[in-house]
């Protein structure tokens, strides 16, 4: 069973340390101190290999997520940002034109009111 941790908000990665249980044959009486030392060294090497595998897997997962994020950013910069800026420019131009037309209508309405008052009196 792999225990996972979360990095960068949503990236699941293996968590270290990994519990490591070896299936070494156990004997009632070890054959000598060399065998005891060899068994201890083997357990330590196995633990180190497991921790390395976890760190390597976590690094690979992080690197893959980084590459996906870079692709997304590149797509945003190359495609979405220019499209949105273009749409914004069109909307701003339409608003500016509508404001200008509104000013012209107000001036005409003001002239019509002034002309109507002056001619009737």
Automatic annotation (TrEMBL):
It holds the Pfam family ATP-synt_D. Residues 111-121 have a biased composition (Basic and acidic residues). Transmembrane segments: none annotated. Residues 102-121 are annotated as: Disordered. Keywords: Ion transport, Transport. It comes from the Bacteria. The keyword RNA-binding does not apply. The keyword Amino-acid biosynthesis does not apply. Gene3D superfamilies: 1.10.287.3240. Belongs to the V-ATPase D subunit family. This is V-type ATP synthase subunit D. It comes from Streptomyces pratens. The lineage of its organism: Bacteria, Bacillati, Actinomycetota, Actinomycetes, Kitasatosporales.
